[in-house]
Structures are given as C-alpha cells and as structure tokens.
C-alpha cells in the first residue's frame, strides 16, 4: 500500500482522478483478507501481457542432413 500511495502522490493527475483515488484507498487496510473464513487459503492469480517489442535478434542455423 505504501508503494501505491507514494506513487499516487508523485504523479500528475486531474482533480477528478485524485478524488477517486483518495475515495477508493481511504478505508484500505493492508491487514484485511478478502475471504469469508480467515483460515482458508487465498488463491491469487495474475497475468503478464507483452506491451511492446523493442528489438528482435535472429540466429539462422544451417542444418545439414
């Protein structure tokens, strides 16, 4: 949460975006878990998407049969 809040305070945004961010993170507690039963494990999934290809290095292999 500290990384998010420090990042949010160092960015340039409009008044509406700043108000929305403050409203969403106002009651945020890092110690709370989003589960009904605290003894149950929490499964977290995340993905990664390639945004941009900067350079492609190609190696051509000559195979002889």
From TrEMBL:
Residues 17-56 form the Neurotransmitter-gated ion-channel ligand-binding domain. GO terms for molecular function: extracellular ligand-gated monoatomic ion channel activity. Gene3D superfamilies: Neurotransmitter-gated ion-channel ligand-binding domain. SUPFAM superfamilies: Nicotinic receptor ligand binding domain-like. One of its GO terms (cellular component) is membrane. Transmembrane segments: none annotated. It comes from the Eukaryota. It holds the Pfam family Neur_chan_LBD. This is Neurotransmitter-gated ion-channel ligand-binding domain-containing protein.
């Amino acid at each position: 949460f500290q990384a998010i809040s420090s990042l949010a305070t160092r960015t340039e945004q409009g008044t509406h975006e700043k108000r929305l961010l403050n409203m969403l993170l106002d009651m945020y507690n890092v110690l709370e878990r989003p589960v009904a039963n605290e003894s149950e494990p929490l499964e977290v999934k995340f993905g990664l998407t390639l945004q941009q290809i900067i350079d492609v290095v190609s190696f051509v292999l000559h195979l002889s049969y």
